[in-house]
Design a protein that fits this description.
Length: 87
């Protein structure tokens, strides 16, 4: 009977180590999961248009440079305002 005590003690130590290993495993898994989630959140948003905005000198509306009408160094929102401004 006296020998059973150390064996139980040893088994308890082994079970404790297993529980500790499982806990470490769970902890690593949780940290890995949250790190992954942060990585997904870091995905860049839709690229912001780098196109310049220009202002129609006739009516003052802002519009992308590619859609503006350039005449004699001045931008217009359309051909109509270019003609109105120059007349
Ligand atoms: Zn205009």
């Amino acid at each position: 009977m006296g020998l059973l005590v150390p064996r139980d003690f040893l088994e308890t130590r082994i079970v404790s180590k297993l529980v500790l290993l499982v806990l470490i495993g769970v902890l690593v898994y949780v940290v890995y999961r949250s790190a992954n989630r942060i990585g997904q959140r870091d995905v860049p948003a839709q690229p912001k248009s780098a196109e310049d905005m220009v202002r129609c000198v006739h009516c003052g509306v802002n519009l992308p440079r590619s859609e503006a009408v350039l005449s004699k160094g001045a931008f217009f929102c359309g051909d109509e305002h270019r003609r109105l401004h120059q007349s």
